[in-house]
Please model this.
Amino acid sequence: MSQRIASTTAAAGAIRKRQRTLAESQTFFAWILLIPTMIVVAIVGLVPLIQTFYLSLTDARLASITPAEFVGFENYAFLLQDTQFYRTIGNTIFFTVITVGFEFILGLVIAMVINSNFRGRGLMRAAMLIPWAIPTVVSAQMWKWMYNDVYGVINDLLVRQIGILDSNVAFIATNTTVSLVSIAAVDIWKTTPFVALLLLAGLQVISGDVYEAASVDGANPIQKFLYITLPLLRPAILVTLIFRTLDSLRVFDVFFVMFGQRSDTQTMAIYAQQNLVDFSDLGYGSAVSIAIFFIIAIFVVLYVTFLNVEES
Amino acid sequence: MTGGDTRHIFSRVLFYLLIIVILVYTIFPFYWAFASSLTPNNRLFSTPISYWPLEPTLNNYQLVFRNNLFIRALINSAIVSFAVTALALVVGALGAYALGRFRFKGRSVVLYTVLAMTMFPQIAVLGALFEMVTNLGLYNNLLSLIITYLIFTLPFTVWVLTNFFKAMPRDLEEAAYVDGASPFQTFYMILLPLAAPGMVTTGLLAFIAAWNEYLFALSFTQTPENRTVTIAITAFEGATASSFELPWGQIMAASVVVTVPLIILTLYFQKRIIAGLTAGAVKG
Model:
């Protein structure tokens, strides 16, 4: 009897030991598998982020003979008084508010259209992917040509075909506000379909039964939209808005292609890149980069808390 | 015909009108690029403009394909994009296997680091990467792009593939272990083939992201023969009918050349791409 107990405990112990070593060896194996990922994440992500922060505390210049010196928060002190930096923040936020707002509203309309049943639905969904797939640089070039002040199709449409403008407008050349709105239109065109696809994925998860029940209770379409669609779509809306805001706040490509280094329409990212690459000013450019990083982080925190608080 | 029928038909017409408006809005810029690419310069730079190509010509395409620097840029972009995609898939699949199929301490820390990196603004690390690239002597070298592009391809690949591996039934490995397979054999022979569709999707998305990248390419390369296609497309110069205008016909032809492969790829794999793009959004 005791022998049996002893052997059982021994067996149990052996099993436990084997399980433990199995768990241990699995953990070991998992970390081995993760080594390449962690090396890459460290080399191109975490280390550069820390390094950028360190650079922002120095007066480092690229290919400079004199070694970089630690200057504390001098760059940041200068940043706080840099009117051009404030201007780039203003431009970027203006651009972000317009693009994210329009993309969300238009995207929701398109998503709801595609979500209803009609012939050619698949075709339309496919067409929505095309603007997303092309490079931003290419779409910027296409629109730059369409905006051309003499031979551009948009001027022709607005002046000659529709007649709401008296004469041709230099959409992306002179006036700052006109330029910013025009460039926002390019981003809205390119990204609305993507927003629509994200929201459509959210709509498709909502069961038709809910709408039927609402119909039985005599709800009209507007009530259904306000009290069923919007609340149930909230997770998809949150993710979409966060993605889009982050993208808009770091916008670079379309502005650089359309405006180059034009100062009145500069965005935060263009200002950072100009300081880093064109002026070789690693210290100040890094300070601008870190500031952008924190501005973006603030927006993420605002979104998440705002939308979560509302939920609870 | 009753009033209800008329109203139904009316709303149906409005609905299709809305669809047409959306489609025209989406497609028109592409049509315009294509039409302009077929238009000879003397027509392109004349008013009033025409809404379809008069005297269509392939001259712009001939000029683009005879432009050695543009061809070089296409090849460069292909090299960089394929290399980045391959690297991201190999490294990402191994990492995702660990994160998706094993439970271990520190797993969620790694997972959240990866997730945070998918939202990472590239501009935040540009300074340090610029310094690193220069110090390693990789400035103006395609290798600098292959390495740095991993910052936006790898985290995404790991994240999507992790969800893919997680969704596979648990008994897969157990059966393999019972048969005496090692964890790596199990991965290589059983899970990896099953993950192939997910690899295709993430690979496509990584490829498109790398092909479309501009900021790093602009910052880390300099000479025309090391340009990628996104840089080349903004670097067209040349004599046109009006000396004040860029060669827009050629630029539009080049835009079409760059875009068509992407459109074909996207339409062919549309279901997978949509699934891949929305996976994160729906699951949260």
Q: What stands out?
A: Chain B has 14 helices and no strands.
